[in-house]
Amino acid sequence: MKLSDLKNVPCIVWCLALNACVVLGWYATTPTLFNSYNSPHYVYRLELYHASLWQRIVHYDQKAPFIVRLHRVDPKELLGESQVVDLWSGIDIDWQLDPPVQSNKVYVGRDVIFKNIPPECTEAAQIPGCPNTRP
Asked: Do residues 103 and 116 lie in contact, with contact meaning Cβ atoms separated by under 8 Å?
């Protein structure tokens, strides 16, 4: 095949080939949503994503590579995102946001810790099910 033969390929074929390359590139670099979990009072949402194909290749030594994102539900806000972590040992979620264990942290597995997360139960929030915060 000579270079002059490539000039005879119709434009639609080049467009389809370029489109296929873009789609494959997007697929190889985008994590896919696995599951989401709400905090006890539905103030926060934790999303677990399977690592992208590229991230799985880079982190070949991990059995279950995931990315974890923590969002505030209202107003919508991304509060934190983890690096690629191995959640092979389990997905244990511990919301330590309100009394009696209030450390303002969210633990996911043994490798992910989101720090300085505001408590769910505040006087201003008035969320049903929260303990009375007034003295």
From this structure: no
pTM, rounded to two decimals = 0.80
- What does the pLDDT average to over 16-29? 89
- DSSP per-residue codes, the chain: --HHHHTTS-HHHHHHHHHHHHHHHHHHH--EEEEEEE-TTSSEEEEEEEPPHHHHHHTTT-SSEEEEEEEETTTTEEEEE---EE-TT---EEEE-STTS--SEEEETTTEEE-SPPPS--TTT--TTPPP---
Looking at residue 8, its pLDDT comes to 78
